[in-house]
From TrEMBL:
<keyword id="KW-0411">Iron-sulfur</keyword>
<dbReference type="GO" id="GO:0016836">
    <property type="term" value="F:hydro-lyase activity"/>
</dbReference>
<dbReference type="InterPro" id="IPR010327">
    <property type="entry name" value="FldB/FldC_alpha/beta"/>
</dbReference>
<protein>
    <submittedName>
        <fullName>Benzoyl-CoA reductase/2-hydroxyglutaryl-CoA dehydratase subunit, BcrC/BadD/HgdB</fullName>
    </submittedName>
</protein>
<dbReference type="GO" id="GO:0051536">
    <property type="term" value="F:iron-sulfur cluster binding"/>
</dbReference>
<keyword id="KW-0408">Iron</keyword>
<keyword id="KW-0479">Metal-binding</keyword>
<dbReference type="Pfam" id="PF06050">
    <property type="entry name" value="HGD-D"/>
</dbReference>
<comment type="similarity">
    <text>Belongs to the FldB/FldC dehydratase alpha/beta subunit family.</text>
</comment>
Length: 333
């Protein structure tokens, strides 16, 4: 089976139907002990220090893992992906592009997915057959999410890890399903968590994975991971086709579409506050202006760069934010 890298979530059903093993380079980069070296390699090769650590990490991970075919999302994700693909193409890596259209209509999304299927010689029936095969896995991801915000047994980090992994199923959907079932069985036997504050996390998945454990030390727990949940396609069971599934995927489209789902989840999960994570040098950080204006609960914006650990200043800001939320909710000191 051939490997193919991806720069973010794409219609993975098409790639699996084409006989590829899919590797999300974001996951390979951030989960590796070599993540700092991936960034350093990119900077040695000429990537500016003032460019996004994720794009540099994807570049380093691509070379470290010997990826020779790559799908990059040119519209709807990182504005630097086009340049990244040009660099990798010049190094002999075969690249394909996919775009989530800025004109967010069923017709435009259908056209882009049809182009993607044509590029890999995949028929709609083949992609739909794979989508059906993945339905059980996506259903178990919903169970993991409910164990987080309804049963209060899964941690925010577990919710993050097991949903973000559905961008590529860790390279093996069958094994991923078995691991998810096993983890859900383990979590189901736990005593519910009792933290007083219920938080949401919005924005791209964090470089700083210790965020989840840190907030738990202050009587809080993250029970909603916005983009990670979208990677798991929680509404795919209700989608009548692959076209509708990727039309309903909120992350790559306009902010109003994303915010409508975030507002639903704030009410459903009874959130006390939100942490909005932005990445240094990312255009999405500007969206914070609208997010704070549109949402009716407190929002703390934190920024990450190269480090995979929270810095002292961010820890202090998080502590102050959680203290404020405790006061607003009347949580005893």
């Amino acid at each position: 089976m051939k490997n193919i890298g991806i720069t973010t979530t794409v219609p993975v059903e098409v790639l699996l139907a084409a006989g590829y093993r899919v590797i999300d380079l974001n996951n390979v980069f951030i989960s590796s002990e070599a993540c700092a070296q991936d960034i350093e390699r990119a900077e040695r090769d000429g990537f500016p220090k003032s460019s996004c650590a994720w794009i540099k990490g994807i570049y380093g991970a691509c070379l470290r893992c010997g990826i020779d075919e790559l799908v990059g999302v040119l519209e709807g994700d990182c504005s630097n992906t086009r340049a990244l693909m040009e660099v990798l193409r010049g190094m002999g890596i075969k690249t394909y592009d996919f775009s989530y259209p800025s004109e967010h209509t069923p017709e435009s999304v259908t056209a882009e997915i049809n182009k993607f299927m044509d590029r890999f010689g995949v028929a709609l029936s083949q992609a739909e057959a794979v989508r059906e095969d993945l339905a059980e896995l996506r259903q178990y991801a919903r169970v993991m999410d409910k164990l987080t915000y309804i049963d209060n047994k899964a941690t925010g980090l577990e919710n993050h890890l097991y949903q973000v992994s559905l961008s590529d199923f860790n390279g093996d959907a069958v094994q991923c399903l078995e691991e998810l079932k096993k983890k859900i069985s383990e979590i189901g036997k736990r005593t519910p968590h009792t933290q007083a504050l219920r938080l949401g996390y919005i924005g791209v998945p964090p470089m700083t994975g210790d965020l989840y454990r840190y907030v738990e030390d202050y009587d809080a727990r993250i029970v909603y991971n916005e983009v990670q949940r979208e990677f798991a396609f929680p509404r795919s069971m209700e989608a009548e086709s692959i076209y509708r599934q990727y039309y309903d995927y909120t992350y790559p489209y306009n902010l109003d579409f994303r915010l409508s789902e975030i507002k639903k989840q704030i009410k459903l999960r009874e959130l006390d506050g939100l942490i909005h994570y932005t990445q240094a040098f990312c255009h999405r950080a500007i969206e914070d202006i609208i997010i704070k204006r549109e949402l009716e609960i407190p929002v703390l914006t934190i920024e990450g760069d190269k480090s995979n650990r929270l810095d002292p200043r961010t820890k202090l800001r998080l502590e102050a934010f959680l203290d404020m939320l405790s006061d607003l909710k009347g949580v005893p000191a």
